[in-house]
Amino acid sequence: MSNLQDALRAVLGNALAWEFNMLGVCAEEARGRDVSSELWNALAPPPAMSGMMDEVYASHVRELLARAEAKEDLSQPTKAEVLVVISQLSLQAPLKDSVASLYARVMREVIGDVGCEVLSVREAYPGELDEIEREFKRAIKTSRSRVTT
């Protein structure tokens, strides 16, 4: 942790320091791209991501930037948002095997193999995890506009 981050936490508190840090993550991911104010607003970290690893938010931003470049809908949840929701569910109750497998797969896609070595990905039938991920994405509501940029 940098001295700047420590100073921000002391003055602003953890939540605001995290938001400030995420601005830096977003700026780094968007470097060299023409980002409109509408897109910049869409890149704001969802409240549920507060306190998550930088890599989770960076993945979220990369996916949204890729969608924007491809002129795709930004309102659909990102893989990082799916990861956050499953993470929150795992704190409330044990995950079903299929959801735990989706969690492992999405975690690898979002942050890589860091800490995922013990998590296994198993499907009861081909395409099961894709199906469950689509169900999660349908259930997750985002505050982003349906308008593509």
What does this structure look like?
- The protein is 60% helix and 0% strand.
- The mean pLDDT is 87.
- It is mainly alpha-helical and 149 residues long.
- It is globular, with a radius of gyration of 16 Å.
- It has one domain (3-139).
Concise account of the structure shown:
Helices cover 60% and strands 0% of the residues. The protein has 149 residues and is mainly alpha-helical.
Distance between the termini: 35 Å
Overall, the morphology is: globular
Strand runs, count:
0
Q: What pattern of helices and strands is seen along the backbone?
A: HHHHHHH
What gyration radius follows from the Cα positions, in whole Å?
16 Å
Percent of residues in beta strands? under 5%
What's the number of helices? 7
Mean pLDDT: 87
| Helix residue percentage | 55-70%
Low-confidence stretches: none
Domain count, please report it. 1
Structural class: mainly alpha
Oligomer: single chain
Largest sheet: none
What labels would you give this structure?
149 residues; mainly alpha; 7 helices
How is this fold's topology laid out?
Blueprint: H1 3-12, H2 14-30, H3 37-42, H4 54-69, H5 79-92, H6 97-111, H7 128-139
Helix pairs in contact: 1-2, 2-4, 4-5, 5-6, 6-7
